[in-house]
Design brief:
Layout: H1 2-6, H2 8-36, H3 40-57, E1 65-66, H4 69-82, H5 84-103, H6 115-132, H7 144-161, H8 167-181, H9 211-243, H10 249-265, E2 272-273, H11 275-284, H12 290-306, H13 308-311, H14 316-330, H15 338-343, H16 346-362, H17 365-384, E3 389-394, E4 400-408, E5 428-438, H18 441-456, E6 460-464, H19 468-477
Parallel strand pairs: 4-5, 5-6
Antiparallel strand pairs: 1-2, 3-4
Helix pairs in contact: 2-3, 2-4, 2-11, 2-12, 3-10, 3-12, 4-5, 4-9, 5-9, 5-10, 6-14, 6-16, 6-17, 7-8, 7-14, 8-14, 9-10, 9-11, 11-14, 16-17
Length: 485
Protein backbone atom coordinates (compact mmCIF):
# COMPACT_ATOMS: atom_id res chain seq x y z
CA UNK A 1 0.00 0.00 0.00
CA UNK A 2 2.91 2.37 0.74
CA UNK A 3 4.32 1.79 -2.73
CA UNK A 4 0.90 2.61 -4.21
CA UNK A 5 0.86 5.91 -2.33
CA UNK A 6 4.27 6.75 -3.78
CA UNK A 7 3.26 5.82 -7.34
CA UNK A 8 0.84 8.23 -9.07
CA UNK A 9 -0.03 5.60 -11.69
CA UNK A 10 -0.83 2.89 -9.15
CA UNK A 11 -2.74 5.35 -6.95
CA UNK A 12 -4.84 6.44 -9.94
CA UNK A 13 -5.68 2.80 -10.70
CA UNK A 14 -6.72 2.18 -7.09
CA UNK A 15 -8.85 5.33 -6.89
CA UNK A 16 -10.67 4.70 -10.17
CA UNK A 17 -11.18 1.04 -9.28
CA UNK A 18 -12.78 2.07 -6.00
CA UNK A 19 -15.13 4.40 -7.86
CA UNK A 20 -16.18 1.72 -10.35
CA UNK A 21 -16.83 -0.78 -7.56
CA UNK A 22 -18.83 1.79 -5.58
CA UNK A 23 -21.08 2.45 -8.57
CA UNK A 24 -21.64 -1.26 -9.07
CA UNK A 25 -22.26 -1.83 -5.34
CA UNK A 26 -25.18 0.58 -5.07
CA UNK A 27 -27.83 -1.32 -7.09
CA UNK A 28 -26.68 -4.68 -5.71
CA UNK A 29 -26.85 -3.49 -2.10
CA UNK A 30 -30.35 -2.20 -2.75
CA UNK A 31 -31.35 -5.47 -4.43
CA UNK A 32 -30.00 -7.55 -1.55
CA UNK A 33 -31.93 -5.35 0.89
CA UNK A 34 -35.10 -6.22 -1.00
CA UNK A 35 -34.25 -9.93 -0.82
CA UNK A 36 -33.67 -9.68 2.94
CA UNK A 37 -36.89 -7.73 3.43
CA UNK A 38 -35.29 -4.60 4.88
CA UNK A 39 -35.05 -0.94 3.91
CA UNK A 40 -32.44 -0.22 1.17
CA UNK A 41 -30.40 1.90 3.57
CA UNK A 42 -29.72 -1.24 5.67
CA UNK A 43 -27.94 -2.86 2.71
CA UNK A 44 -26.17 0.34 1.67
CA UNK A 45 -24.91 1.00 5.20
CA UNK A 46 -23.68 -2.60 5.36
CA UNK A 47 -21.80 -2.14 2.08
CA UNK A 48 -20.15 1.03 3.41
CA UNK A 49 -19.14 -0.26 6.85
CA UNK A 50 -18.04 -3.70 5.60
CA UNK A 51 -15.84 -2.25 2.84
CA UNK A 52 -14.20 0.36 5.05
CA UNK A 53 -13.62 -1.90 8.07
CA UNK A 54 -12.34 -4.91 6.09
CA UNK A 55 -9.87 -2.67 4.28
CA UNK A 56 -8.09 -2.31 7.64
CA UNK A 57 -8.90 -5.66 9.28
CA UNK A 58 -8.89 -8.13 6.37
CA UNK A 59 -6.09 -10.40 5.26
CA UNK A 60 -6.62 -10.13 1.48
CA UNK A 61 -5.82 -6.73 -0.06
CA UNK A 62 -8.09 -5.56 -2.90
CA UNK A 63 -10.91 -7.95 -1.96
CA UNK A 64 -14.33 -6.32 -1.65
CA UNK A 65 -16.68 -7.17 1.21
CA UNK A 66 -20.22 -5.81 1.47
CA UNK A 67 -23.83 -6.93 1.76
CA UNK A 68 -24.28 -10.14 -0.26
CA UNK A 69 -27.07 -12.23 -1.69
CA UNK A 70 -26.00 -15.32 0.24
CA UNK A 71 -26.34 -13.54 3.58
CA UNK A 72 -29.60 -11.91 2.47
CA UNK A 73 -31.12 -15.31 1.68
CA UNK A 74 -30.10 -16.68 5.09
CA UNK A 75 -31.50 -13.79 7.14
CA UNK A 76 -34.72 -13.15 5.17
CA UNK A 77 -36.86 -15.60 7.23
CA UNK A 78 -35.62 -14.04 10.49
CA UNK A 79 -36.55 -10.54 9.30
CA UNK A 80 -39.98 -11.75 8.22
CA UNK A 81 -40.70 -13.42 11.57
CA UNK A 82 -38.98 -11.13 14.11
CA UNK A 83 -37.98 -7.87 12.41
CA UNK A 84 -34.88 -5.70 12.04
CA UNK A 85 -33.67 -5.71 15.65
CA UNK A 86 -33.35 -9.50 15.76
CA UNK A 87 -31.57 -9.36 12.40
CA UNK A 88 -28.96 -6.93 13.76
CA UNK A 89 -28.50 -9.06 16.88
CA UNK A 90 -27.97 -12.13 14.69
CA UNK A 91 -25.36 -10.30 12.57
CA UNK A 92 -23.44 -9.22 15.69
CA UNK A 93 -23.52 -12.80 17.02
CA UNK A 94 -22.41 -14.09 13.60
CA UNK A 95 -19.45 -11.73 13.74
CA UNK A 96 -18.47 -13.04 17.17
CA UNK A 97 -18.68 -16.62 15.89
CA UNK A 98 -16.49 -15.74 12.89
CA UNK A 99 -13.88 -14.15 15.16
CA UNK A 100 -13.79 -17.28 17.32
CA UNK A 101 -13.58 -19.60 14.29
CA UNK A 102 -10.86 -17.42 12.78
CA UNK A 103 -8.75 -17.55 15.94
CA UNK A 104 -9.28 -21.34 16.09
CA UNK A 105 -7.72 -21.66 12.63
CA UNK A 106 -10.75 -22.58 10.52
CA UNK A 107 -8.97 -21.07 7.49
CA UNK A 108 -6.67 -24.08 7.41
CA UNK A 109 -9.65 -26.17 6.30
CA UNK A 110 -9.30 -24.55 2.87
CA UNK A 111 -6.59 -27.07 2.01
CA UNK A 112 -9.30 -29.74 1.77
CA UNK A 113 -11.07 -27.99 -1.12
CA UNK A 114 -9.75 -29.55 -4.36
CA UNK A 115 -9.05 -27.66 -7.55
CA UNK A 116 -12.04 -29.16 -9.36
CA UNK A 117 -14.34 -27.67 -6.71
CA UNK A 118 -12.63 -24.30 -7.12
CA UNK A 119 -13.16 -24.45 -10.89
CA UNK A 120 -16.81 -25.34 -10.36
CA UNK A 121 -17.11 -22.52 -7.84
CA UNK A 122 -15.71 -19.99 -10.30
CA UNK A 123 -17.89 -21.20 -13.19
CA UNK A 124 -21.02 -21.27 -11.05
CA UNK A 125 -20.23 -17.79 -9.83
CA UNK A 126 -19.98 -16.54 -13.41
CA UNK A 127 -23.31 -18.14 -14.29
CA UNK A 128 -25.02 -16.64 -11.21
CA UNK A 129 -23.64 -13.19 -12.00
CA UNK A 130 -24.98 -13.41 -15.56
CA UNK A 131 -28.35 -14.84 -14.47
CA UNK A 132 -28.75 -12.10 -11.84
CA UNK A 133 -28.75 -9.54 -14.64
CA UNK A 134 -31.63 -11.16 -16.55
CA UNK A 135 -34.41 -9.37 -14.58
CA UNK A 136 -32.95 -6.05 -15.75
CA UNK A 137 -33.30 -7.20 -19.37
CA UNK A 138 -36.89 -8.45 -19.27
CA UNK A 139 -39.97 -6.30 -19.56
CA UNK A 140 -37.94 -3.14 -20.16
CA UNK A 141 -38.07 -0.47 -22.92
CA UNK A 142 -36.34 -1.50 -26.14
CA UNK A 143 -33.80 1.30 -25.68
CA UNK A 144 -32.20 -0.72 -22.88
CA UNK A 145 -30.80 -3.25 -25.35
CA UNK A 146 -28.82 -0.85 -27.56
CA UNK A 147 -27.53 0.87 -24.42
CA UNK A 148 -26.30 -2.45 -23.02
CA UNK A 149 -24.72 -3.27 -26.38
CA UNK A 150 -23.02 0.13 -26.53
CA UNK A 151 -21.67 -0.29 -23.00
CA UNK A 152 -20.34 -3.76 -23.87
CA UNK A 153 -18.58 -2.38 -26.94
CA UNK A 154 -16.94 0.34 -24.84
CA UNK A 155 -15.80 -2.14 -22.17
CA UNK A 156 -14.34 -4.49 -24.80
CA UNK A 157 -12.66 -2.03 -27.14
CA UNK A 158 -11.79 1.03 -25.03
CA UNK A 159 -8.73 -0.70 -23.43
CA UNK A 160 -7.23 -0.88 -26.95
CA UNK A 161 -7.08 2.91 -26.93
CA UNK A 162 -5.84 3.40 -23.37
CA UNK A 163 -5.82 1.66 -20.01
CA UNK A 164 -5.39 4.89 -18.05
CA UNK A 165 -9.08 4.93 -17.13
CA UNK A 166 -10.96 1.68 -16.38
CA UNK A 167 -13.22 0.77 -19.28
CA UNK A 168 -16.22 -0.02 -17.00
CA UNK A 169 -16.09 3.53 -15.61
CA UNK A 170 -15.98 4.97 -19.14
CA UNK A 171 -18.99 2.86 -20.11
CA UNK A 172 -20.98 4.03 -17.07
CA UNK A 173 -20.17 7.71 -17.68
CA UNK A 174 -20.86 7.63 -21.43
CA UNK A 175 -24.13 5.69 -21.21
CA UNK A 176 -25.33 7.89 -18.34
CA UNK A 177 -24.49 11.02 -20.31
CA UNK A 178 -26.36 9.74 -23.37
CA UNK A 179 -29.51 8.92 -21.40
CA UNK A 180 -29.45 12.30 -19.66
CA UNK A 181 -28.75 14.38 -22.80
CA UNK A 182 -31.46 12.67 -24.85
CA UNK A 183 -33.82 12.19 -21.87
CA UNK A 184 -34.20 8.48 -22.56
CA UNK A 185 -36.83 6.74 -20.46
CA UNK A 186 -34.93 3.68 -19.21
CA UNK A 187 -34.67 2.06 -15.74
CA UNK A 188 -32.13 3.75 -13.46
CA UNK A 189 -30.47 3.09 -10.11
CA UNK A 190 -33.05 5.33 -8.48
CA UNK A 191 -35.77 2.90 -9.54
CA UNK A 192 -34.22 0.19 -7.36
CA UNK A 193 -35.00 2.01 -4.12
CA UNK A 194 -34.64 5.24 -2.18
CA UNK A 195 -31.07 6.24 -1.39
CA UNK A 196 -30.22 7.33 2.20
CA UNK A 197 -29.77 11.03 2.93
CA UNK A 198 -27.58 10.74 6.04
CA UNK A 199 -24.58 8.83 7.39
CA UNK A 200 -25.10 5.67 9.44
CA UNK A 201 -25.25 6.15 13.22
CA UNK A 202 -24.70 3.84 16.17
CA UNK A 203 -27.49 1.27 16.42
CA UNK A 204 -28.09 -1.00 19.40
CA UNK A 205 -30.70 -3.70 18.70
CA UNK A 206 -33.70 -3.55 20.99
CA UNK A 207 -33.94 -7.23 21.91
CA UNK A 208 -34.23 -8.86 25.33
CA UNK A 209 -30.97 -10.44 26.51
CA UNK A 210 -32.52 -13.83 27.23
CA UNK A 211 -31.99 -17.47 26.33
CA UNK A 212 -35.11 -17.30 24.18
CA UNK A 213 -33.56 -14.53 22.06
CA UNK A 214 -30.41 -16.60 21.69
CA UNK A 215 -32.50 -19.59 20.63
CA UNK A 216 -34.12 -17.49 17.92
CA UNK A 217 -31.03 -15.83 16.47
CA UNK A 218 -28.37 -18.53 16.99
CA UNK A 219 -29.29 -20.75 14.00
CA UNK A 220 -29.27 -17.75 11.66
CA UNK A 221 -26.04 -16.42 13.19
CA UNK A 222 -24.24 -19.74 12.66
CA UNK A 223 -25.52 -19.95 9.08
CA UNK A 224 -24.37 -16.39 8.31
CA UNK A 225 -20.98 -17.04 9.93
CA UNK A 226 -20.32 -20.26 8.00
CA UNK A 227 -21.63 -19.02 4.64
CA UNK A 228 -19.72 -15.77 5.02
CA UNK A 229 -16.44 -17.44 5.91
CA UNK A 230 -16.72 -19.99 3.14
CA UNK A 231 -17.41 -17.40 0.44
CA UNK A 232 -14.76 -15.03 1.79
CA UNK A 233 -12.02 -17.64 2.00
CA UNK A 234 -12.82 -19.01 -1.45
CA UNK A 235 -12.78 -15.50 -2.87
CA UNK A 236 -9.46 -14.79 -1.16
CA UNK A 237 -8.01 -17.94 -2.66
CA UNK A 238 -9.29 -16.92 -6.10
CA UNK A 239 -7.68 -13.47 -5.78
CA UNK A 240 -4.45 -15.14 -4.65
CA UNK A 241 -4.41 -17.09 -7.91
CA UNK A 242 -5.20 -14.04 -10.06
CA UNK A 243 -2.58 -11.79 -8.43
CA UNK A 244 0.06 -14.49 -7.74
CA UNK A 245 0.24 -13.36 -4.13
CA UNK A 246 -0.59 -14.94 -0.79
CA UNK A 247 -3.12 -13.66 1.70
CA UNK A 248 -3.49 -14.16 5.44
CA UNK A 249 -6.57 -16.39 5.61
CA UNK A 250 -6.65 -16.44 9.40
CA UNK A 251 -6.65 -12.65 9.55
CA UNK A 252 -9.32 -12.57 6.86
CA UNK A 253 -11.49 -14.94 8.92
CA UNK A 254 -11.49 -12.92 12.14
CA UNK A 255 -11.45 -9.69 10.12
CA UNK A 256 -14.75 -10.67 8.51
CA UNK A 257 -16.16 -11.30 11.97
CA UNK A 258 -14.97 -7.97 13.33
CA UNK A 259 -16.39 -6.19 10.28
CA UNK A 260 -19.78 -7.85 10.78
CA UNK A 261 -19.80 -6.77 14.43
CA UNK A 262 -19.04 -3.18 13.41
CA UNK A 263 -21.65 -3.35 10.64
CA UNK A 264 -24.28 -4.64 13.04
CA UNK A 265 -23.73 -1.80 15.48
CA UNK A 266 -24.20 0.68 12.63
CA UNK A 267 -27.49 -0.85 11.53
CA UNK A 268 -26.18 -2.85 8.56
CA UNK A 269 -27.42 -6.26 7.43
CA UNK A 270 -23.97 -7.86 7.51
CA UNK A 271 -22.16 -9.48 4.63
CA UNK A 272 -18.99 -11.12 3.40
CA UNK A 273 -16.64 -11.04 0.41
CA UNK A 274 -18.38 -10.17 -2.87
CA UNK A 275 -16.90 -12.25 -5.64
CA UNK A 276 -18.43 -10.27 -8.51
CA UNK A 277 -17.34 -6.89 -7.15
CA UNK A 278 -13.92 -8.31 -6.28
CA UNK A 279 -13.52 -9.42 -9.89
CA UNK A 280 -14.43 -5.91 -11.05
CA UNK A 281 -11.80 -4.53 -8.68
CA UNK A 282 -9.01 -7.03 -9.28
CA UNK A 283 -9.52 -8.29 -12.82
CA UNK A 284 -11.36 -5.52 -14.69
CA UNK A 285 -9.81 -2.53 -12.90
CA UNK A 286 -6.43 -4.13 -11.96
CA UNK A 287 -6.53 -2.94 -8.34
CA UNK A 288 -4.10 -4.63 -5.96
CA UNK A 289 -4.16 -2.82 -2.59
CA UNK A 290 -6.42 -2.00 0.36
CA UNK A 291 -6.81 1.54 -0.97
CA UNK A 292 -9.35 0.45 -3.59
CA UNK A 293 -11.38 -1.46 -0.99
CA UNK A 294 -11.40 1.50 1.40
CA UNK A 295 -12.28 3.99 -1.32
CA UNK A 296 -15.09 1.76 -2.61
CA UNK A 297 -16.81 2.18 0.75
CA UNK A 298 -16.03 5.89 0.97
CA UNK A 299 -17.16 6.61 -2.58
CA UNK A 300 -20.34 4.62 -2.01
CA UNK A 301 -21.44 6.67 0.99
CA UNK A 302 -20.40 9.94 -0.69
CA UNK A 303 -22.32 9.02 -3.84
CA UNK A 304 -25.55 7.94 -2.14
CA UNK A 305 -25.60 10.68 0.50
CA UNK A 306 -23.92 13.63 -1.25
CA UNK A 307 -24.61 12.90 -4.92
CA UNK A 308 -27.67 10.73 -4.61
CA UNK A 309 -29.65 12.61 -7.26
CA UNK A 310 -26.91 12.08 -9.87
CA UNK A 311 -26.28 8.45 -8.93
CA UNK A 312 -30.00 7.77 -9.11
CA UNK A 313 -29.91 8.74 -12.81
CA UNK A 314 -27.30 6.10 -13.75
CA UNK A 315 -29.06 3.68 -16.14
CA UNK A 316 -29.13 0.08 -15.04
CA UNK A 317 -28.14 -0.85 -18.61
CA UNK A 318 -24.59 0.39 -17.95
CA UNK A 319 -24.24 -1.62 -14.74
CA UNK A 320 -25.73 -4.71 -16.40
CA UNK A 321 -23.08 -4.50 -19.12
CA UNK A 322 -20.32 -4.25 -16.50
CA UNK A 323 -21.60 -7.31 -14.65
CA UNK A 324 -22.03 -9.33 -17.86
CA UNK A 325 -18.40 -8.68 -18.78
CA UNK A 326 -17.37 -9.66 -15.27
CA UNK A 327 -19.26 -12.93 -15.73
CA UNK A 328 -17.53 -13.61 -19.06
CA UNK A 329 -14.13 -12.84 -17.58
CA UNK A 330 -14.76 -14.91 -14.46
CA UNK A 331 -15.83 -18.12 -16.23
CA UNK A 332 -12.98 -20.60 -16.72
CA UNK A 333 -13.51 -21.31 -20.42
CA UNK A 334 -10.47 -23.57 -20.57
CA UNK A 335 -12.15 -25.96 -18.11
CA UNK A 336 -14.98 -26.72 -20.56
CA UNK A 337 -12.89 -26.88 -23.73
CA UNK A 338 -13.28 -30.28 -25.47
CA UNK A 339 -9.52 -30.89 -25.33
CA UNK A 340 -9.50 -30.28 -21.56
CA UNK A 341 -12.53 -32.50 -20.94
CA UNK A 342 -10.90 -35.34 -22.92
CA UNK A 343 -7.72 -35.19 -20.82
CA UNK A 344 -9.37 -34.60 -17.46
CA UNK A 345 -10.24 -37.68 -15.34
CA UNK A 346 -13.96 -38.30 -15.34
CA UNK A 347 -14.14 -37.97 -11.56
CA UNK A 348 -12.69 -34.43 -11.73
CA UNK A 349 -15.29 -33.41 -14.31
CA UNK A 350 -18.10 -34.90 -12.20
CA UNK A 351 -16.93 -32.91 -9.18
CA UNK A 352 -16.76 -29.68 -11.18
CA UNK A 353 -20.20 -30.20 -12.74
CA UNK A 354 -21.84 -31.17 -9.44
CA UNK A 355 -20.50 -27.99 -7.85
CA UNK A 356 -21.83 -25.89 -10.72
CA UNK A 357 -25.25 -27.55 -10.93
CA UNK A 358 -25.98 -27.48 -7.18
CA UNK A 359 -24.78 -23.89 -6.86
CA UNK A 360 -26.87 -22.66 -9.78
CA UNK A 361 -29.99 -24.59 -8.72
CA UNK A 362 -29.80 -23.41 -5.08
CA UNK A 363 -28.30 -19.97 -5.87
CA UNK A 364 -26.07 -20.64 -2.88
CA UNK A 365 -22.31 -20.87 -3.38
CA UNK A 366 -21.75 -22.38 0.06
CA UNK A 367 -24.11 -25.32 -0.58
CA UNK A 368 -22.52 -25.90 -3.99
CA UNK A 369 -19.00 -25.95 -2.60
CA UNK A 370 -19.92 -28.31 0.24
CA UNK A 371 -21.59 -30.61 -2.28
CA UNK A 372 -18.49 -30.53 -4.48
CA UNK A 373 -16.20 -31.36 -1.57
CA UNK A 374 -18.42 -34.28 -0.51
CA UNK A 375 -18.58 -35.67 -4.06
CA UNK A 376 -14.81 -35.26 -4.42
CA UNK A 377 -14.22 -37.07 -1.13
CA UNK A 378 -16.52 -39.95 -2.12
CA UNK A 379 -14.93 -40.37 -5.55
CA UNK A 380 -11.43 -40.15 -4.10
CA UNK A 381 -12.29 -42.74 -1.46
CA UNK A 382 -13.76 -45.03 -4.11
CA UNK A 383 -10.65 -44.66 -6.26
CA UNK A 384 -8.05 -45.41 -3.61
CA UNK A 385 -10.16 -48.15 -2.04
CA UNK A 386 -9.11 -50.38 -4.96
CA UNK A 387 -5.38 -49.69 -4.62
CA UNK A 388 -4.76 -52.38 -2.01
CA UNK A 389 -3.15 -55.54 -3.36
CA UNK A 390 -2.53 -58.76 -1.42
CA UNK A 391 -0.02 -61.37 -2.63
CA UNK A 392 1.01 -64.57 -0.92
CA UNK A 393 4.16 -66.72 -0.91
CA UNK A 394 5.23 -69.84 0.95
CA UNK A 395 8.47 -69.44 2.94
CA UNK A 396 11.03 -72.23 3.08
CA UNK A 397 10.08 -73.02 6.68
CA UNK A 398 6.48 -73.70 5.69
CA UNK A 399 5.12 -70.31 6.78
CA UNK A 400 2.49 -68.67 4.58
CA UNK A 401 3.36 -65.00 4.06
CA UNK A 402 0.80 -62.44 2.88
CA UNK A 403 2.20 -59.12 1.62
CA UNK A 404 -0.26 -56.22 1.73
CA UNK A 405 0.55 -53.33 -0.61
CA UNK A 406 -1.46 -50.08 -0.32
CA UNK A 407 -3.14 -47.87 2.31
CA UNK A 408 -5.53 -49.51 4.74
CA UNK A 409 -8.51 -47.45 5.85
CA UNK A 410 -12.26 -47.95 6.26
CA UNK A 411 -12.96 -48.27 2.50
CA UNK A 412 -9.94 -50.26 1.33
CA UNK A 413 -9.87 -52.67 4.27
CA UNK A 414 -13.50 -53.75 3.94
CA UNK A 415 -12.80 -56.81 1.76
CA UNK A 416 -9.33 -57.49 3.19
CA UNK A 417 -10.85 -60.08 5.50
CA UNK A 418 -11.79 -62.22 2.49
CA UNK A 419 -8.32 -62.29 0.93
CA UNK A 420 -6.99 -65.09 3.17
CA UNK A 421 -7.26 -68.89 2.86
CA UNK A 422 -8.15 -69.67 6.47
CA UNK A 423 -8.83 -73.38 5.90
CA UNK A 424 -5.91 -74.27 3.62
CA UNK A 425 -3.18 -72.14 5.22
CA UNK A 426 -0.50 -73.81 7.41
CA UNK A 427 -0.20 -73.51 11.18
CA UNK A 428 1.83 -70.27 10.99
CA UNK A 429 0.78 -67.27 8.93
CA UNK A 430 2.54 -63.89 8.61
CA UNK A 431 0.93 -60.68 7.33
CA UNK A 432 3.63 -58.31 6.06
CA UNK A 433 2.50 -54.66 6.24
CA UNK A 434 5.85 -53.08 5.41
CA UNK A 435 4.34 -51.73 2.16
CA UNK A 436 1.17 -50.52 3.81
CA UNK A 437 -0.09 -48.04 6.39
CA UNK A 438 -2.88 -48.48 8.91
CA UNK A 439 -4.87 -45.25 8.93
CA UNK A 440 -7.87 -45.89 11.15
CA UNK A 441 -9.63 -48.11 13.67
CA UNK A 442 -11.60 -49.86 10.91
CA UNK A 443 -8.38 -51.34 9.53
CA UNK A 444 -7.24 -52.46 12.98
CA UNK A 445 -10.64 -54.07 13.52
CA UNK A 446 -10.31 -56.01 10.24
CA UNK A 447 -6.83 -57.24 11.22
CA UNK A 448 -8.25 -58.33 14.58
CA UNK A 449 -11.03 -60.23 12.79
CA UNK A 450 -8.51 -61.98 10.53
CA UNK A 451 -6.42 -62.93 13.54
CA UNK A 452 -9.51 -64.24 15.37
CA UNK A 453 -10.47 -66.45 12.41
CA UNK A 454 -7.04 -68.06 12.33
CA UNK A 455 -7.10 -68.47 16.12
CA UNK A 456 -10.47 -70.24 15.89
CA UNK A 457 -8.80 -72.82 13.63
CA UNK A 458 -5.88 -73.34 15.99
CA UNK A 459 -3.48 -71.36 13.79
CA UNK A 460 -1.11 -68.50 14.57
CA UNK A 461 -1.14 -65.15 12.77
CA UNK A 462 1.70 -62.67 13.13
CA UNK A 463 1.63 -59.09 11.88
CA UNK A 464 4.95 -57.50 10.99
CA UNK A 465 6.37 -54.56 9.09
CA UNK A 466 4.38 -51.79 10.77
CA UNK A 467 6.34 -48.65 11.56
CA UNK A 468 5.77 -45.15 12.93
CA UNK A 469 2.19 -44.00 13.40
CA UNK A 470 0.78 -47.19 11.92
CA UNK A 471 2.57 -49.31 14.51
CA UNK A 472 1.53 -46.98 17.34
CA UNK A 473 -2.09 -46.98 16.17
CA UNK A 474 -2.21 -50.77 15.88
CA UNK A 475 -0.56 -51.35 19.25
CA UNK A 476 -2.98 -48.95 20.94
CA UNK A 477 -6.18 -50.36 19.39
CA UNK A 478 -5.51 -54.04 18.64
CA UNK A 479 -7.59 -56.31 20.87
CA UNK A 480 -9.64 -53.41 22.27
CA UNK A 481 -12.27 -53.01 19.56
CA UNK A 482 -14.49 -55.92 20.54
CA UNK A 483 -13.73 -57.92 17.40
CA UNK A 484 -13.35 -61.66 17.64
CA UNK A 485 -13.79 -61.66 21.44
Amino acid sequence: MRSALRSPRRLRIEVLAGLVVALALIPEAIAFSVIAGVDPRVGLFAAFTMAVSISFLGGRPAMISAATGAVALVIAPLVASHGLDHLIAAIILAGIIQVVLGLLGVARMMRFIPRSVMVGFVNALAILIAVSQVPYLLGVPWLVYPLVAAALVLIIFFPRLTTTVPAPLVAIVVVTAVTMVFALGVPTVGDEGELPRSLPTLFVPDVPLTVETLRIIAPYAFAVALVGLLESLLTARLVDDITDTRSDKTRESWGQGASNIITGFFGGMGGCAMIGQTMINVRASQARTRISTFLAGVFLIVLVVGLGDIVADIPMAALVAVMLMVAVGTFDWHSVAPSTLRRMPRSETIVMLSTVVVTVVTSNLAIGVVTGVVVAALLFTRRIAHLVDVTSVMDEDGTKRYVVDGPLFFASSNDLEHRFSYVDDPERVVVDLSRSNVWDASSVAVLDAVQAKYRARGKTLEIEGLTGNSAARHDRLAGHLGVGL
